Predict the 3D structure of the following.
Amino acid sequence: MNSSSSRIVVLGTGGTIAGRASRAGDNLGYTAGEVGVAQLLESLGGFADAVELVAEQVAQVDSKDMGFGLWQQLAARCAHWLAQEDVVGIVITHGTDTLEETAYFLQAVLDPAKPVVLTCAMRPATALVPDGPQNLLDAVAVATTPGARGVVAVCAGKVHSARDVQKVHSYQVDAFASGDAGLVGLVEEGRVRLLRPWPSVVDFYEGNMPPALIQSAQAAIKSVVLGGLPASGWPRVEIVLNYAGASGWLVEALVAQGVQGLVVAGTGNGTVHAALEAALLRAMAQGVRVVRSTRCVFGRVLGWGADAIPDAQGLSPVKARIALLLELLALRA
Ligand code: SIN
C-alpha cells in the first residue's frame, strides 16, 4: 500500500458486511446494514494504517432494496470525492445481492480514471469468522494500487470488472464470478496480480460505438444522473423471462402500463417462446425498446444480424436493463 498523504474514501451503503446478528456466529438470522462503516474500518485492526481512510456513511440498506435515488446519491458522492486531488480511490461497502448492478451503473455513469472498488461479505460482521474485514482490506489494497482505474468488485481475493461480475452462489464466501471474461486480477497478501487491463468505458460499450459517440453518450448520462433527476423521472424498463409455457401476457400488461424498455432473458442463445416473441415484436412496433439477453450464467447471445430483437452485447439481463435505462436517458438529454 502507498505510504503518502493520499486518502482513500470508504463509502458505506449497508449489506451483510455491515450485518449484525443477536447471537454471535449466526450467519443467517442477522439484519443487513446495521454496523457503521467507521466501525467496519476499526475491524481492520490497523492493517490499513499506511494510508489515510476517510469513512462516509451514504446509506444503511439491504441491497435488495437498492434503487434509483440511492444509485444517484452514491454516484454523486463518488464524483465529489474523485474530484479531490489527494483522493486516490474509493472503496464502497455494499450488499452482495445487487452489487453487480451498482458496479455496472457506476462504471457507466462515471467511467472513473481512479479506482472505485466495491466490496462486500457473505457473513455478517458478528460472524464467528467474518469475511468482511479481509475483503475490505483487499479492497483498500486494490484502491491504492498504482495504475488502478475503473469500477471493480473485490471479494474472496478476486478482482472482477463491473461489466463481468455476477453473484453466482447464494451462500458461499467466494460468491462471485466473471464468466468467460475472467478476473481482472487477484489480491495476494495485499498486492494485486493483474490478469487483464483495468476496466474502462470501452469495456462498457464493448467498443461497438465510435469513441466520439461513446464520449457524448457518457457525458449526457452523467449530467442527467448527477443533475438531480427525480426517481419518478427514470424510464420504466423491466425484465421478462423465457421459460417453458411462457406467454405474451406479461409483456402485454407491461405495455399497457406504459413500459418504455424490455429486456428478455431468453433461454440458451436468447431463444424466446413463439407467443412471448410475438408479444415482444408487437411491443417494438409500438415503440418499446427491446433487448435480448440470456438466462444462462455463462456465454452470451450470439446474434446473427437478421435478428428482429437486438442482442444485449454480452450483458446479463440485469446489466442490459441498466444499459437500456441509461440509453433511454441519454436519448432524452
Ligand atoms: C445484501 O445484499 O444487502 C444482503 C446480502 C449480502 O450482502 O450478502
Q: What stands out?
A: Residues 14-16, 32, 62-64, 95-97, 120, 122 surround succinic acid (CB under 6 Å). The chain has two domains: 7-202, 235-330. The radius of gyration is 20 Å.
